[in-house]
Design a protein that fits this description.
The protein has 294 residues and is α+β, with helices and mostly antiparallel strands. It is built from five helices and eight strands. It is rod-shaped, with a radius of gyration of 39 Å.
Length: 294
């Protein structure tokens, strides 16, 4: 049974589903926000700063028959409300899912496709475990539907006993021998498709997985996100407090500078007034000196 992941990120998943998958007649099963463990950089490019986009790995199923299970990479760039589809693979191209550590919850995992390998880190170990568990069950459902229908066997005609292969070949017309040989060679050369391999994954996510495990991880993911939000709010509050304190200091300095400027202006005015009086005194002294010199 296909299932849709729930949790604190449901609003983001709903937005991705509505914008990316519903228009293509697909249904989102789970999406996980990830970062690359090893960034792909070119040697001649300077190291980048903080990333300006968010990356989501999504698992979806087509609504049309036969169902197709798909892996899609979706990005959302900073300042944009819309999502963009970057890459898309069928689960037939997904060779391996590596959980990295089978003994404990960890946020790291690898996806190995036919042509590339992506090494990811989820936002939390709980979100990675939700992704692995839903992807595993989706793969089991997909492969069971694809490989679980054996070919129809022809019933022997009434009144005739079933014949061995040699007797049947002898009674077949000679004209059909090339066709029979082609069918036999085709059957021998046929190889069933290779299913996705899950390695280094905890058994509680795969073979021993149950609905309760998924509920537990959803609760953990919710708690982790609430902790992150509280930490972000505390950091924002500290930044706002520091900003308010800095603004108060700047205001006091501005007031002090204003008062000092007023004092300097008054001193400058007094200096100009004293210069004028000194000039007047000098002029009067000069006149008296001229008067008594005669």
């Amino acid at each position: 049974m296909w299932c849709v992941a729930a949790g604190h990120t449901m609003s983001i998943q709903s937005a991705i589903n509505k914008e990316i998958f519903i228009p293509h007649d697909e249904r989102l099963l789970v999406a996980v926000e990830v970062w690359r463990r090893k960034r792909k950089r070119m040697s001649f490019l300077p190291p980048a700063g903080e990333r300006d986009y968010s990356t989501f790995i999504c698992v979806s199923v087509s609504n049309t028959q036969p169902h197709q299970l798909l892996i899609t990479k979706v990005k959302q760039y900073a300042g944009a409300e819309s999502f963009r589809k970057r890459s898309k693979w069928s689960v037939d191209q997904l060779r391996q899912v590596n959980g990295i550590n089978p003994n404990k919850d960890s946020p790291e995992f690898d996806l190995v496709f036919d042509s590339e390998t992506d090494q990811w880190v989820a936002r939390s170990s709980a979100e990675k475990c939700i992704f692995i568990q839903i992807l595993y069950h989706a793969c089991q459902t997909y492969w069971a539907g694809k490989l679980g229908k054996p070919g129809k066997l022809r019933k022997p005609k009434k009144g005739k006993a079933p014949q061995s292969g040699d007797q049947q070949a002898e009674e077949e017309p000679m004209d059909n021998l090339p066709t029979l040989k082609a069918l036999q060679s085709r059957r021998k050369s046929y190889a069933p498709p290779k299913q996705t391999e899950f390695i280094n994954c905890q058994s509680k996510l795969t073979a021993d997985a149950c609905a309760m495990t998924l509920v537990i991880y959803r609760c953990k993911a919710f708690i982790n996100r609430m902790k992150s939000k509280m930490a972000a709010n505390q950091s924002r509050s500290k930044a706002q407090a520091q900003l308010a304190q800095s603004a108060s200091v700047v205001q006091r300095v501005s007031v002090a500078l204003g008062e000092r400027g007023q004092r300097l202006t008054k001193a400058e005015d007094k200096t100009v007034e004293l210069l004028a009086k000194a000039q007047q005194f000098a002029d009067a002294t000069h006149k008296l000196a001229l008067k008594y010199s005669k």
